[in-house]
Amino acid sequence: MRVSSKAHYGLRMMTEFARAYGTGPLSIAEVARVEHLPLAYLEQLAGQLRRGGLVESTRGVHGGYTLARAPELISVLEVVHTVEGEVSPVECVSSDYVAGSCGRDGECASRGLWLRLKESIDAVLRQTTLAELIHDQSLLAAMAPSDPHPEASHD
Amino acid sequence: MRVSSKAHYGLRMMTEFARAYGTGPLSIAEVARVEHLPLAYLEQLAGQLRRGGLVESTRGVHGGYTLARAPELISVLEVVHTVEGEVSPVECVSSDYVAGSCGRDGECASRGLWLRLKESIDAVLRQTTLAELIHDQSLLAAMAPSDPHPEASHD
DNA sequence: GCTAATTCCGACCGTCATGGTCAGAATTAT
DNA sequence: ATAATTCTGACCATGACGGTCGGAATTAGC
Class of A5-87+129-138 per CATH? Predict the structure, then answer.
């Protein structure tokens, strides 16, 4: 139940592109530098993002990548989707699930749970845009971290 | 972003234990039979569940496992936790995260997002108990599948 | 006490996704 | 021409995952 580094990296890269939005293309060399991520790997991810229609590329000397849309119009869900594929806790709740292939259809006690979980995850990712991400960052400094984990009380 | 089969299997096994709650111990051989899961693998999981305090075991001929608490008092979150460890989309939001080890502290744009995500996931899993799981199953038959996600006509 | 049914335990293993590298081709500004 | 880039495909090492195996310990029933 974790987000792959791939998705994480992809999001970080997109965040950089979002910051540079408006000011010409940003090269992945630059992204690699400021985010401390392996350049060769970012190249791969950038390819996926481009093919997914989230960024546009400019080749050659002053080339790089640009968001295909304004940061307000790109959700984290889209980013995760394009680099990691659909978010789905178990196969039977993914959209390409072939009905009946589970064999436990109908007698499955937990499918409802997984559907709820998927919906919940998608909701969080869908309602967060790149714009909010780079904006929240400014807020972070202002906000004092008060109640990070009220956990460890129930289980 | 998926639940491991391990967690899935663990939950299915716990569901069986929940069904058998009240009527003596249930052997994993039985669980393996009705859930069509590999017995040897279930043994491992059962061990984890026992060490995690979720079930109690009886050895010997009419042995097996029993829930340590009533099904209403065991959340899915607990089950997932004990077999899969903490649910955490990225390391920096897990409870054993050492502050500062990320190096991007303070300048990280997405930590807030991951915290929200983790909270959201935990909430769904925490508020679902084994009792609800086996109860919902009875509802499934009664309820006509009308609106719940017109995905693939589902199962 | 023997036997069969079980839990228990540790070791082992093949496969697969992941995270990452590399070499080189194509493109373009200077 | 050269240097900075994107682009592409191949390659690779590691680890987690899902699973097996052999055998020891325990206990009910005969």
Answer: mainly alpha
